[in-house]
Amino acid sequence: MGLSTPASVNSSPGWKSSSLFVQSGASSTCATLRGSMASSKRKRAQKKVSVTCSSSSSSSDPLLVKAARGEPVSRPPAWMMRQAGRYMAVYRKLAEKYPSFRERSETTDLIVEISLQPWEAFRPDGVIIFSDILTPLPAFGVPFDIEDIRGPVIQSPIVSEEGLKTLHPIDLDKLQFVGESLKILRQEVGGHAAVLGFVGAPWTIATYIVEGGSTSTYTTIKSMCHTAPHVLRALLSHLTQAISDYIVFQVEAGAHCIQIFDSWGGQLPPSMWDSWSKPYIQEIVSSVRKRCPKTPLVLYINGNGGLLERMKGTGVDVIGLDWTVDMADGRKRLGSEISVQGNVDPAYLFSPLPSLTEEILRVVRSAGPRGHILNLGHGVLVRTPEESVRHFFEVARSLNYDTFLQTQTPTEGIGSLVI
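^ Uroporphyrinogen decarboxylase, sequence as received from the core. Prediction below:
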């Protein structure tokens, strides 16, 4: 995945950051969400929400949560990776006023405002918090900066036992802006959409910590697998515990679902992924399952065509497919007992709307009527037309499995639905 963190905002030309990543709400909810931020802030102060890790599913769960669990739904829920970001004019205007990405992603009011921008504009079925996979690093001993051209910069990479001494258990008090933002988002969208949190997988986070920032070769960390495996394993184990705690923290703050981004897992040969990424993701899944047994977990890897069966072995509920994997082939390889997410090529959003419609319908048909979350195979690209994003969600809302899958065949009618 060509981005510094895997999931959501188009932050600057030199790097991309993450922020997770359609059912229309009642008119009263729309009015509340479209009110001024000042009015919204006053109302938020009066609201209370109590969320704990649920041990059972509910008929009132959002559509996306039901699909993630493989429960029957009437249509595919839809959201997009990099759902909030520079393709939206309203985001660009806000970014001019607040040019620092760290400020935008670490200030509660700004996080909430940005996270709600696509919700107010397009009504996706998932509202992902505007954040970054590197956000929790300072909370366990790894400070970082973000530079306009270079992107994330870690001044003291960890490549030795001495470097490990700077690490400590994650201090969740330092991440209260994340918790407060999730609570507010849960209040704002009500039951009309799922609130999504996300984290980076240990291997992906470790690449930044070892390499000192973004890299195109991964030579330092790949060499470390052989030259200092005990140091790398100690780092990965520490990250595993911190990320597990961070997931539970997000769920208890209000996240319905958590996506794990192993953005750079696809840079490993499959046998190395088995050794250096999969066991740590498995450990996270096991740890979170004990505390939040009904919270769906999604795993996304960019370039995952050679890893699908291995990804299934991590125990997650949903596997995100990038657009290089044919959805029908992915379904065949993974089986029907696990849900899938994706996987429209983001470039289709630059195509004529009838072509975009045709591709959406092809993907939905290939995925089948159960356990599918409609998404892109990667994040929204810079300069994507907002009209196309709106159309994507309108098509998703227009579908009904009972009629769509019965009346259309792979060669008939796939271009007939143009909103």
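Residues 301 and 386 are 26 Å apart (CA to CA).
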